[in-house]
From TrEMBL:
Residues 16-287 form the Protein kinase domain. Pfam families: APH (PF01636). GO terms for cellular component: endospore-forming forespore. Coiled coil: none annotated. One of its GO terms (molecular function) is protein kinase activity. This is Protein kinase domain-containing protein. InterPro entries: Aminoglycoside_PTrfase (IPR002575), CotS-like (IPR047175), Kinase-like_dom_sf (IPR011009), Prot_kinase_dom (IPR000719).
C-alpha cells in the first residue's frame, strides 16, 4: 500500500502529502504528491512492463537532460540513486510535477512543436530502439479490417502505405501534440508521455499530426496555418533524406488508420476520407 512513510523512506522528500489521484487506468495510477521539497507526481507503472523494460524506458530522462534537451520532466532519484522502486510487485516512479497548461492547438504552438521535434530527431547516440515500428503495427491494422463496415476500403488504404521501417531513423517520441505537452508560465514546453520513445522512423513523428491533429472532420476543415507552422519550423532546423518528405502524408494516413479503432470510427473514417479528398492541399502545407 502506498503511503507517506513509504515515500519518505525511498525518496529524499520531507513532510509528504498524497493530495489525490490524477489519473487511473487499470493498475496504472498517477498520484499528486506535495512535499517541503516541491510538487511531484508518482506513477505506478503499467503492469505489463518488466523490470528490465522499465529500466530501459526510463533511461530517456537522464539521457536527454545530459544532452541539453531540457523539454522533458525530471525524474527524482531514490535515496539510493535509482530511477524507480519495486513495491509489492509494482514499480513506482517519482518525477517533477510540471505546472502549466496544455497549449492551444494553433500556429504559434505548432511552430514550437516543430522545432522541438527537429531538435529531438537531431539527438545522437541514444542506445535503445522504440518498440513502435511498422512491423509491430501492421498485423493490428490487418486485424482491424474485420471490425468495420468499410473494411474493404480500409484494407486498400492499409495496403497502400509503404514499409516505413525502410526509411531513415532517429530518436522519436511517437505522438507529440498539444495534449501531450505542458506549456509553463515562462512559455517553455515540456513534452510528456515518453513510454514509446526510442530510435525509430522519423516520419512517424512528422506524420502523427497531419491528419489526426490538423484535420477537423466535424467542420470539414484543414488547419493549414498550423500545419505550415509545424513543418516549416521543423525543416528550418532539419532535413530528411531525398524522397522521404513525399511520404509524410502516407505516414499521417498510417497513424489515422491505426487510431481508428480507439475513436468513434464513423467520425474517424470521415476524417480520413476528408484528408484523402483534400490530399493535394494537405500535402502542399508540408512544403
Amino acid at each position: 500500500m502506498i503511503n507517506t512513510d513509504k515515500i519518505q523512506l525511498n525518496w529524499p522528500l520531507t513532510n509528504v502529502q498524497i493530495k489525490g489521484i490524477l489519473q487511473k487506468k487499470g493498475e496504472r495510477v498517477v498520484y499528486d504528491i506535495a512535499s517541503d521539497n516541491g510538487s511531484f507526481i508518482m506513477k505506478v507503472a503499467d503492469e505489463s512492463k518488466t523490470k528490465n523494460e522499465l529500466a530501459k524506458e526510463l533511461e530517456i530522462f537522464d539521457f536527454l537532460n545530459a544532452n541539453n534537451f531540457s523539454n522533458i520532466p525530471k525524474l527524482l532519484k531514490t535515496i539510493t540513486g535509482k530511477n524507480f522502486i519495486e513495491d509489492e510487485g509494482k514499480f513506482l516512479i517519482m518525477m517533477e510535477k510540471v505546472e502549466g497548461i496544455h497549449p492551444e492547438p494553433n500556429p504559434k504552438t505548432y511552430a514550437k512543436l516543430g522545432k522541438l521535434v527537429a531538435r529531438l530527431h537531431s539527438v545522437k547516440l541514444y542506445p535503445h530502439k522504440t518498440s513502435f515500428t511498422f512491423a509491430s503495427e501492421l498485423p493490428k491494422l490487418k486485424e482491424n479490417i474485420k471490425k468495420f463496415p468499410f473494411g474493404q476500403e480500409y484494407k486498400k488504404l492499409v495496403d497502400s502505405v509503404p514499409n516505413f521501417d525502410l526509411f531513415s531513423h532517429s530518436l522519436i517520441h511517437t505522438d507529440i501534440a498539444p495534449l501531450n505537452v505542458i506549456e509553463k508560465k515562462n512559455s517553455d514546453i515540456i513534452i510528456l508521455d515518453w513510454d514509446d520513445a526510442g530510435i525509430g522512423v522519423s516520419l512517424f513523428d512528422l506524420g502523427f499530426s497531419l491528419i489526426q491533429q490538423f484535420v477537423w472532420e466535424d467542420k470539414e476543415f484543414f488547419d493549414e496555418d498550423s500545419a505550415k507552422s509545424f513543418y516549416s519550423s521543423y525543416f528550418s532546423l532539419r532535413s530528411l533524406p531525398e524522397g522521404e518528405k513525399e511520404q509524410i502524408f502516407q505516414a499521417g494516413l498510417f497513424y489515422a488508420l491505426m487510431y481508428l479503432p480507439y475513436e468513434n470510427y464513423d467520425k474517424a473514417w470521415k476524417r480520413i476520407k476528408f484528408a484523402l479528398d483534400n490530399r493535394e492541399k494537405i500535402v502542399s502545407s508540408i512544403y
